[in-house]
Amino acid sequence: MAFFIPLLMGSGGNAGTQAASVVVRGLAIGEVKLGDIWRVVKKEFLIGITVGTALGILALLRALILQKSSLLGITVGLSMIATVTVATCLGAILPIICEKLGFDPAVVSGPLITTVVDISSLLIYFGIAIQLMEFG
User: Fold this and answer.
1) SLC41A/MgtE integral membrane domain: from which residue to which, for each copy (predicted)?
2) Tens of pLDDT along the chain (136 residues)?
3) Considering its fold, how many domains does the chain have in total?
4) Are the C-beta atoms of 110 and 4 separated by less than 8 Å?
5) Contact between 23 and 95 (Cβ < 8 Å)
6) What contacts 46, CB < 8 A, 6 or more positions away?
7) What is the CATH number of the domain that holds 78?
8) What is the pLDDT of residue 51?
9) Residue 31, SS3?
10) Contacts by 73-76 with C-beta closer than 8 Å and gap 24+?
11) Which of 7, 80, 81, 112 has its Cα between 20 and 30 A from that of 59?
């Protein structure tokens, strides 16, 4: 299981940072207003679920090929979908919250998103693993 932790954390971090960059840019040029949080989150959720599913399928195949374990493959695949989806939503929400609190979202978002997404990806991965092991 440890082999796939960097894959999940890296993919989640990349997705979250990309979403945050889009939102920070939107805030800076006036494309995104503080009241647009749910519109932005919905858009990023759809992107996250789509990209997460594609990456999840690839991660599942990688786990099946490298580890020859269907349970591990399903765990990694589902974790990838959930991690990327959560990361894109966090990447959309956190810059807007920073802006509302009076912090510069361009400065605060990167380190904050990386930390929160890293923690989230581990919780998601091990949570899914525990649930699947109970049934496996």
Assistant:
1) 5-128
2) 889 999 999 999 999 999 999 999 999 999 988 888 899 999 999 999 999 999 999 999 999 998 888 999 999 999 999 999 999 999 999 999 999 999 999 888 888 899 999 999 999 999 999 999 887 6
3) 1
4) no
5) yes
6) none
7) 1.10.357.20
8) 97
9) coil
10) 74/132, 75/1, 75/125, 75/128, 75/129, 75/132, 76/4, 76/7, 76/8, 76/125
11) 112
Residue 34 DSSP label: G
**Long-range residue pairs from 62-67, CB within 8 A, at least 24 positions apart, any chain:** 62/7, 63/4, 66/3, 67/3
Query: What is the reported pLDDT for 136?
Result: 62
Q: Which residue has the tokens 């919250």?
A: 97
